[in-house]
Amino acid sequence: MSTIPSRSELSELALDTARRCGVDVGSLTGDVTASSPVNGLPVASLTWRDPAYVDEAVTRAGEAFRAWQRVPAPQRGALVKRWAELLTEHRDDLATLVSIEAGKITSEARGEIQEMIDICDFAVGLSRQLYGRTMPSERPGHRLMETWHPLGVVGVISAFNFPAAVWSWNTAIALVCGDPVVWKPSELTPLTSLACHAVLAQAIAEHGAPEALSQVILGGPEVGRALVDHDGVALLSATGSTRMGRAVGPRVAERFGRSLLELGGNNAAVVTGSADLDLAVRGIVFAAAGTAGQRCTTMRRVIAHTSVVDELTDRLAAAYDRLPVGNPLAAGTLVGPLIGGAAYDAMTGAVAAAVGDGGVLVAGGGRVHEELAPEAFYVRPAIVRTDRQTAVVARETFAPLLYVLPYDDFEAAIELNNAVPQGLSSSVFTSDLAEAELFLSAEGSDCGIANVNIGTSGAEIGGAFGGEKQTGGGRESGSDAWRAYMRRATNTINFSGELPLAQGVDFTV
Ligand code: NAD
């Protein structure tokens, strides 16, 4: 499908687009190459920061914090409101960069920027709703209440596959909560991060807020580690693989910092005998093959009742055969490239392991467009039918590889859903109210996200986002996730003129 843009076409498009967002592209020089998964070729050269630079950035952010925490929250919200307007102006530009650097198709890339605008709207409203509670005191003439205060510098480490939105989920909420943000984006998406930062920097300048409220530091994992270890970072919000979270979590804990971990998923849909299969097929194909299988919430397992598993597998395989795979910037494409060769190797390795375990490859799996773009990695999304949830099925393979497993008994399906180390997203397709309710109950899915009659991916910002077990336990975005970005003080106010002690303690001298 369509041609793949040449190195110069893509590089010019990337740099022009970044310039329109406010990036000083003339100053982009250095010996680090930024490449695009679209053609696998370089788009820009740039310089990574030394880990020592993190200290400077966090110090500056600490100074910004001292000023910003005094600004009333609704005024902080006004900055985020302006940011949303600028994001709306630059929506297509930022989406183009997301497509170039993360390989997302245009509608998904625009969706990612829309998510940024949505979280800004949410945060603006939140800026007038950072509620604390009052509780009845057990003592006469006393008031007991809690107050929420700005927390401090927030460090954000983000993954390649949501190169813009994840930072904005953190940043919009952090800014209204009174916190500056120091961002270490994925090394694979530097132009997107510079452009995102430039748009926010404009809003900050117009607002007259401290410049250091938002900083971006390009660099590799060692820059991330410096941020993780810095005592000046009050909250470290890290999104990426479980491997990364395993390294980051204990280090933040060791210095008694706060961490918010958003790690890998291995998300399943249970398709019951009463499911509307038309709906299930559409929901599964988007969740499993969309974004070329590179969302944390990508559906990786379908657990289907034996009465429907054959028909469902056939219909999924037929739909997979029709999926247009190619240049993500071209109209009509539904599946873009993998991020790189390592992802391709992981996918082919997982298919081979699953087949070795007795699975059958029923769709896709092969590489395409190799002749057009030998450095890029386009694959046909794959389906493996397997009877057992083997070790490879229990692993997150970050590629469009879907395992289909049969079940007989609904409780066993729930057990299979839960019998993986990750706990991010899950769904059930059913017309049976009891099955739906059981799946959502305490005895049901153990994931942070549990859906009915929709797939596992494509969450809205209004809810808290995140998952359990090796997904890390963090929650960000909507609902009351803002509390992670503030500190709580409990206040007791005595207006009685006496000094009664709690629990009836007598300490009369
Ligand atoms: P990754 O773990 O390779 O990298 C993520 C970020 O962590 C990068 O910025 C990287 O430089 C940094 N990093 C790596 N090791 C580090 C260390 N020891 N200390 C500090 N920083 C370190 O992940 P990726 O390949 O970019 O993204 C894909 C993974 O992210 C998948 O596992 C996916 O499920 C997960 N993900 C999770 C969510 C979520 O919300 N749960 C969202 C998006 C992606």
Automatic annotation (TrEMBL):
Organism: Nocardioides soli
Record-annotated active site: E262
Domain Aldehyde dehydrogenase: 33-488
Chaperone found in the keyword field: no
SUPFAM superfamilies xrefs: ALDH-like
Keywords associated with the record: NAD, Oxidoreductase
The protein's name: aldehyde dehydrogenase (NAD(+))
InterPro entries named among the record's database cross-references: Ald_DH/histidinol_DH (IPR016161), Ald_DH_C (IPR016163), Ald_DH_CS_GLU (IPR029510), Ald_DH_N (IPR016162), Aldehyde_DH_dom (IPR015590), ALDH7A1-like (IPR044638)
UniProt KW Cytoplasm keyword: no
Assembly, per entry: Homotetramer.
PROSITE patterns in UniProt: ALDEHYDE_DEHYDR_GLU
GO molecular function list: aldehyde dehydrogenase (NAD+) activity
Family: Belongs to the aldehyde dehydrogenase family.
EC numbers: 1.2.1.3
